[in-house]
Amino acid sequence: MTPQTEPRGRPKITEEWLRARVTVDECGHWIWRGTLTATGQPQARIGGRAGCVEYVRRLVLESLLGRALTAEDWADVICEVRGCVRPGCCCTRKPGPKKGVPRSATAKAARAQRVVAAHAVVE
Ligand SMILES: [Zn+2]
Q1: Is position 103 within any domain?
Q2: How many domains does the chain have?
Q3: Hey, which end of the chain has fewer CB within 10 Å, N or C?
Q4: 28-54 residues labelled b (16+ CB within 10 A) or e (exposed)
């Protein structure tokens, strides 16, 4: 048996693997039963104790897209349901300033500009 070669050795997940670790809620979202980060990102340890911790949504998207996500791709869900990892809900976003998580001075500046723009619209 030859293991599949993956770019940069990214772990591969299957739908079965995912389904075994979620609870489907009344609206059909797949709620991750494992650990969440402080910001609500589902995490999984892949490869046992010696394995690494991965963001589940990134793994879902990578298996959907058939490529590894870059640092420019942020894994998120369009439904915004906390802990949801349903493949149909997962999406990538470009990095941008997030509420309460200023990434850099540039992000702060961008946010400040948006606030100014919002004021301009109101006035
Ligand atoms: Zn969802």
Answers
A1: no
A2: 1
A3: N
A4: ebbbbeeeeeeeebbebebeeeeeeeb
Q: Report if residue 70 sits inside a domain.
A: yes
> Which pair of structure tokens corresponds to residue 99?
């509420």
- 104 within domain boundaries: no
Domain that holds residue 19: 7-94
Cα(41) to centroid(ligand 1), Å: 13
pLDDT by residue for the chain (123 residues), tens only, comes to 545 544 457 888 999 999 999 999 999 999 999 999 998 899 999 888 888 899 999 999 999 999 999 989 999 999 999 999 999 999 998 876 655 544 556 666 655 555 444 444 444
Give distance in angstroms: CA of 28 to centre of ligand 1. Answer: 7
Q: Please give the distance, rounded to the nearest whole angstrom, from the Cα atom of residue 16 to the centre of ligand 1.
A: 17
89 Cα–ligand 1 center, Å? 5
